[in-house]
Amino acid sequence: MDPRLTRLRLETLLRSLPDLLMPRVCLVCGRQLLPSERHLCVCCEADLPLTHFESNSRNPMADSYNARLVVAGCGMCYQYAVSLFYYGSGSGYDYIPQALKYDRNFGAGRHFARMLGRLVAGAEHFRDVDLVTCVPLHWTRRYRRGYNQAAVIASELARALQADRPGRVLFDPWLLRRTRRTATQTRLSVADKALNVAGAFAVRPSRLNRILRFNHTSRLNRPSRLNSLPRHILLVDDVYTTGSTLSACAEALFEAFGPEVRVSIATLACVPQR
Ligand SMILES: [Zn+2]
After folding, report:
1. Tens digits of per-residue pLDDT, 244-264?
2. Both 3 and 39 in a single domain?
3. Residue 242 alpha carbon to ligand 1 centre in Å
4. Residues 195 and 130 in one domain
């Protein structure tokens, strides 16, 4: 027998060994995965309900987010929004963000965040993003969970954006903090969700100073102070539902950086907007 065939069979066997010991299953349908499949079976991967928002700077999620900002009285220009796939309750795909949030499935979270990162990095309207941050958890919730799922996604987006612009994109998952503990949003009405998170976020002064220092050293040839501030912030969360949490965070960013800054948002999943 050709020795290359023997080597190929051995490699396949070694690759399949972890699956034999601990079978991996599709996050959506639960079917056992083949060695070549990652997190989703080939059928569920093909049916992933992609939003394609990255190819359209004006999309239903961005319209919904901008409408909230107008109500809140901030936002001078149209803010962009992007999400990888639609989050339909009971569709099975809603488990993807939940696997990261509740089941510590960092592998899946990073995998889908990298998919989103590639789309964001390739979109013209995100090319000038210079700061990536995320929706914070209250410290008590973060202490209990041990991590912030939005920070896991944001780190992959920052990595994707930095790929062709090393040193030009700052990633700071600690820029925002929750000023008070808020009730979980899942069981609240649309109006109550907005009330629940209104004014619940603020920029940490220590992190703001760090950004100003970073910009001072990396942009020495830019003379004005305004130019040393970030111009396009990408704010990241796991899921976009009504936009109340993301717009409350954006308000805190506008307050710290001024209305000239653009605060775009990116999430793994998005509830279809009516
Ligand atoms: Zn499947």
Report:
1. 999 999 999 999 998 889 999
2. yes
3. 28
4. yes
